[in-house]
Amino acid sequence: MNQTDYFMHRSIMEQPTAFKSILTSHNKEFSEASHILGNSKNIFLIGTGSSLHAAMFGRFILEKYVENKNIMVYSSFEFSNYTPDLSRDDTVIVISHRGYKMYSYDSLKKARNAGCKTVAITGVSSSIKKGDADFIFTTVEQEKSSAHTISLTSAVAVLLKLAASSKLEATQEKESLEKLAESIVPGMEKALKLEKELKDMSKKMDFSQRVWIFGGGPNSVTAMEAALKMQETSYVTAYGYEIEQLIHGPVRAADLSHDIFICISTWGKSYERIQNFAKALRSLNVSVIEITDRNDSQEKNLVSVQRTEEEFSPLINLIVLQLLSLSVAVARGKNPDNFRSDNSAFARLDEMIKL
C-alpha cells in the first residue's frame, strides 16, 4: 500500500480544517462553559494516552488565558483510583475520543458525585451521552486508525476555544477566534507540505534502533506524543522526554553510534538549552533530526516549520512528527492503522485486558 492509502494519513491531512472549524464555529455552550472556568477554584484535566497528552497541552493553554487558578493534569486511571479532594467550586474536564474507556467514564462519575462542574470532550458517536457531564463538546468522527491524530488536535482546539473565550466579551468572540485561527492554521498547513521531505528522511536514516525525542515546555509533551505514535505505528523503541529529564540520566542508556535523536527546538523558553544539547550531540557525530523555526542554520536533517507562540507550537510540530511516524512505519513495512491486531499474541492480550 502507498502511504496515502492509510487512514492515519487521511486524519493527519484533515487536521488544519478540523482545528479551524472547531475554533471558529458558533456554539453558545462554549461561552457558558468558559464562564464556569473563570469562576472555578481548581481545574482538573483528565485523559489517557493521546487524550492525556491533549490534557497536558491544555494545561499550558489554560495557564495562558485563565488566571489565578490551580490547573492540574491527571491520568484517568490515577484520578479514578487516587481521587484528589474535590469540591463544588472545581471543574473537571475529561478528554476521551471514544468515550468507553472505563477509567475516563469513572472519573466523570466521581467528579459529578462530588458536585463538580464537568466537561467532556469526545468524538462524534462516542459512548458519552447527555447527562454524563454538564457540558459535552464533540470534536470529529471516530478515527479509523488506532494511531490517533486528529482527535488530539481537535480536543486541543476545544480547550483553546474554552480558554480564549473566558477572556472575551461576546461581541469580540467571533473576530478574536478567527484571528487566533489565522495565527496557527497556516503553520499547520505548511507542515503538511513537508511530507515528501519526511518520507525521504525515513528511508535515508536507520530507525531500527532507539529513537529519543525531546523538547521543553509544551513541546516536552509533543515529544511524549511523538514517541507514542512511533511505538503505535512502527513498533520501534521510542522515548519522549523533557530536555532536562533526558540529560539527567536516561541519555546514559543511549547508543550514541546508532540511536537517533529528534530535538524540537522551536522558539520558546527552552530553546537555548535544547540547542546546546543538540550541538553537543552533533559534535559526537550522533544522528540528530531538528525541528526548527529558524532560517539561519546550515545543519543537516533540519525540518523547518513556521513560528508561532510557544503554547501553540505543538499543533505544528505534532503534524511533522505524525508524518514522520507514518513514514517510518511504511518504510519498515508496518501497517500504522491496525495496532498490531493481526498479531495473535496481541489479539489475545486485547481480549484479556479491558480498556
UniProtKB/TrEMBL annotation:
<dbReference type="InterPro" id="IPR035466">
    <property type="entry name" value="GlmS/AgaS_SIS"/>
</dbReference>
<protein>
    <submittedName>
        <fullName>SIS domain-containing protein</fullName>
    </submittedName>
</protein>
<feature type="domain" description="SIS">
    <location>
        <begin position="201"/>
        <end position="339"/>
    </location>
</feature>
<dbReference type="GO" id="GO:0006487">
    <property type="term" value="P:protein N-linked glycosylation"/>
</dbReference>
<keyword id="KW-0677">Repeat</keyword>
<dbReference type="Pfam" id="PF01380">
    <property type="entry name" value="SIS"/>
</dbReference>
<dbReference type="InterPro" id="IPR035490">
    <property type="entry name" value="GlmS/FrlB_SIS"/>
</dbReference>
<dbReference type="InterPro" id="IPR001347">
    <property type="entry name" value="SIS_dom"/>
</dbReference>
<dbReference type="GO" id="GO:0006002">
    <property type="term" value="P:fructose 6-phosphate metabolic process"/>
</dbReference>
<feature type="domain" description="SIS">
    <location>
        <begin position="33"/>
        <end position="174"/>
    </location>
</feature>
<dbReference type="GO" id="GO:0097367">
    <property type="term" value="F:carbohydrate derivative binding"/>
</dbReference>
<dbReference type="InterPro" id="IPR046348">
    <property type="entry name" value="SIS_dom_sf"/>
</dbReference>
<dbReference type="GO" id="GO:0006047">
    <property type="term" value="P:UDP-N-acetylglucosamine metabolic process"/>
</dbReference>
<dbReference type="GO" id="GO:0004360">
    <property type="term" value="F:glutamine-fructose-6-phosphate transaminase (isomerizing) activity"/>
</dbReference>
